Structure formats: C-alpha cells, structure tokens
Amino acid sequence: MTVEEAQLEVRSIFMGGLVGQLVSGVLWLLSAAIGTWASPGGGIAVLCVGGALIFPVTQLALRTMGRPATLRADNPLGHLAMQIAFTIPLGLPLVGAATLHRLNWFYPASMIVVGAHYLPFVFLYGMRHFAVLCGLMVGGGIMLGLYLHDTFSLGGWLTGATLVLFGIVGGFLARREAQGVRFAA
C-alpha cells in the first residue's frame, strides 16, 4: 500500500474528518455551555471525560451510518493515528498545571494541546486544511491566554464552532474527491 493509498483510505473511512470533528466540536460546545451556565469544574470534567470518548463515539456514528469505522489492517497509517491520539492525554498534565495556576487558562491550554495534535493530520489524511486548524487552535489558545484570560468559556465556544466548521470543510473535500474531483493535498 502506498502512502497515497493509505491516506485515501483514511479520508474515505473518516469522511475527511467530518464525523470526528463534529463529535469533538459538539463536545467542546457542551463543555463550554456547562462551563458558562453551570460551573467551570463541570465544563472541565465534560471535556476531559468526553475527550476519551471521541474516537469510540466517532466509530459508533460511522457504523450507525452504515459505513466502515476502521482502517484495513495493512494500512500503516492506523498506527500513526493511534500515536497522534495519545499526544492529547500526554499533554493533559500541562493543561492541569496551567489551570491550577489560572482557572481561565483551561480552555486556552486545551486549545494548544489539541490544536498541536492536528498538525500530523496533514500527513495522516493528506489534507492541508488541518494545518490551518492547528494554527487557529494553537494561535487562538495563545491569544486567549495572553489577552482574554478574564473569561472562562470563550475558548470552548470558539473551538467548538471551529471544529464543526472544519469538519464540514473536510467532509466536503472528501465527498468531492469521492465524486472524482481531486483536490491538492
């Protein structure tokens, strides 16, 4: 299997990131809503616990849609996807330290950790728009942490909306490709 074939399978199976990005975006929006209208601790708990469920919920959604939910065993990018996923829990101690220092840094720190994990998606999917998503999340997290640190949930709201938007873009690109319109990777 060539790299291009492996990337094509990733784009096809995961619909250009559509389902995973929607699951993740809804989780961030739910977390932000709870953080805004219930309690910051509740918002933190929802994002941390729910984050561990993003991939299983994505697989369940794909299967419910009647689609395959896993890559073929001979696709070498499956191992890369797993390694990328584990970068987030490895970054959580840093998010925790930032949050202990200043509660309102929870979402900005989470944006930086999760945003950085999207950079290798450029290779995993063969889709450059993930570099833009990475830049927006990392840059947005830095800006919010430095300049808008008096608000707790803003980063959750912005990230949720951004993930939903990028999920739609990725889904559109993957669908266009499936219809025979090739895009530049």
Basic shape = elongated
- How many helices in DSSP terms? 10
SSE ordering: HHHHHHHHHH
> Could you report the average pLDDT, rounded to the nearest whole number?
94
Number of strands: 0
Uncertain ranges? none
Instruction: Report the biggest beta sheet as strand number plus sense, adding barrel if it closes.
Output: none
**How big a fraction of the residues is strand?**
under 5%
Number of domains: 1
Helix content: over 70%
Assign the structural class, choosing from mainly alpha, mainly beta, alpha/beta, alpha+beta, or little secondary structure.
Answer: mainly alpha
Distance between the termini: 18 Å
- Radius of gyration using CA atoms only: 16 Å
What's the short story on this structure?
By secondary structure, the chain is mainly alpha-helical.
Description:
- This protein is an all-alpha fold and 185 residues long.
- The chain has one domain.
- The protein is built from 10 helices and no strands.
- It has helices spanning 3-13, 18-37, 40-51, 54-64, 77-85, 87-101, 106-117, 121-126, 129-147, 154-178.
- Helix 2 packs antiparallel against helix 10 (154-178).
- The radius of gyration is 16 Å and the shape is elongated.
- The mean pLDDT is 94.
List keywords for this structure.
185 residues; mainly alpha; 0% strand
Map the helices and strands.
Elements: H1 3-13, H2 18-37, H3 40-51, H4 54-64, H5 77-85, H6 87-101, H7 106-117, H8 121-126, H9 129-147, H10 154-178
Helix pairs in contact: 2-3, 2-4, 2-10, 6-7, 7-9, 9-10
